[in-house]
């Protein structure tokens, strides 16, 4: 029997295929990205979703057999099994360019503070919750990370080890 901490199991496609009612399905993940960020489901064609541990989802381009007993598989993607699902920094940096809603664009000073891990008061007339944070890089709006917007404050979700002073 494999160690649960290293075993990746593929997400079931739909609710009908799920054994554990707490476990996310591929369809729920696609719906989350479409409803929260406006990312079209076809963006994830060719990718498979995997769970390791309770609610730690990974994304992999391809389809190895399930379960897989390895240390890493693709990229960390989404945290589920909590009240509000949280996309990872890697997922937003890779797929945030496809987002059409719940995207907040920061100017240079606000972006500097954000990547340094600072929380900041900002006006935002959109939904509260997790946002795709963008900033202009080389003349294009590029996703830089995940922010949590509540009570008039954008809270940086950049992990401590990834924060930078720029």
Automatic annotation (TrEMBL):
Residue ranges constituting the DUF7122 domain according to the UniProt record: 3-74
Q: Where is this region: Disordered?
A: 1-25
Pfam families assigned: DUF7122 (PF23437), Methyltranf_PUA (PF13636)
* Ranges where the rRNA small subunit methyltransferase F RNA-binding PUA-like domain occurs: 111-164
Q: Where is the composition biased (Basic and acidic residues)?
A: 10-25
Protein name (database record):
rRNA small subunit methyltransferase F RNA-binding PUA-like domain-containing protein
């Amino acid at each position: 029997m494999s160690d649960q901490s290293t075993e990746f199991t593929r997400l079931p496609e739909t609710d009908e295929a799920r054994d554990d009612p707490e476990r996310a399905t591929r369809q729920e993940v696609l719906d989350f990205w479409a409803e929260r960020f406006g990312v079209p489901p076809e963006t994830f064609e060719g990718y498979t979703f995997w769970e390791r541990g309770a609610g730690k989802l990974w994304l992999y381009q391809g389809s190895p057999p399930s379960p897989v007993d390895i240390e890493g598989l693709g990229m960390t993607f989404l945290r589920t099994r909590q009240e509000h699902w949280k996309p990872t920094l890697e997922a937003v940096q890779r797929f945030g360019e496809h987002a059409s809603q719940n995207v907040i664009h920061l100017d240079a000073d606000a972006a500097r503070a954000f990547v340094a891990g600072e929380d900041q008061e900002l006006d935002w007339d959109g939904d509260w919750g997790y946002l795709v944070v963008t900033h202009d890089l080389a003349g294009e709006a590029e996703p830089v990370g995940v922010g949590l917007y509540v009570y008039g404050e954008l809270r940086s979700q950049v992990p401590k080890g990834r924060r930078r002073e720029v």
